[in-house]
Specification:
0% of the residues lie in helices and 40% in strands. A hairpin with a 6-residue loop joins strand 7 and strand 8.
């Protein structure tokens, strides 16, 4: 694993970036966690059945390739819900849909509330500060 500061125009949000291999195909903006199973890489799409989030895909990658991930700062995130301007400023959570974010914290037993940060714009820009809040029982 390597940590880099991007120099290709991706640094407008002051992101901390890591470069890691992916265990499945990912799309730019997918929410990622360290892998649960598989032999091709260290990252896979996160969902609320997991316990953590390590960042957001900075670009699209195929299984086994190394991609950059944003771990803090501003990043555009893929959402499982439609966003409006009235959503700006709301907390953002990992959704039940792998790789996606949502504005509603999960409440189902066995899921984990993982906060990604705060919505900065209705285009999906999020101020990232991922943290696990609680596991629902």
């Amino acid at each position: 694993m390597s940590f880099i500061r991007p120099t290709n125009g991706q640094s407008t949000g002051g992101q901390d970036v890591a470069s890691l291999p992916v265990n499945e195909n990912v799309t730019k903006g997918d929410v990622l966690r360290s892998k649960i199973a598989g032999a091709h890489g260290m990252l896979e799409k996160a969902n609320d059945a997991g316990t953590h989030c390590v960042g957001v895909a900075a670009h699209t990658g195929t299984i086994g390739t190394v991609i950059n991930i944003f771990q803090s700062g501003l990043a555009t995130v893929n959402f499982a819900v439609s966003l409006t301007s009235s959503d700006v400023g709301k907390r953002v959570y990992v959704s039940s849909t792998p790789g996606q974010a949502t504005l509603t914290a999960p409440t189902t037993s066995g899921t984990t509330v993982i906060e990604l940060g705060y919505l900065r714009s209705d285009s999906g820009s999020v101020l990232l500060a991922p943290k696990t809040i609680i596991q629902n029982s």
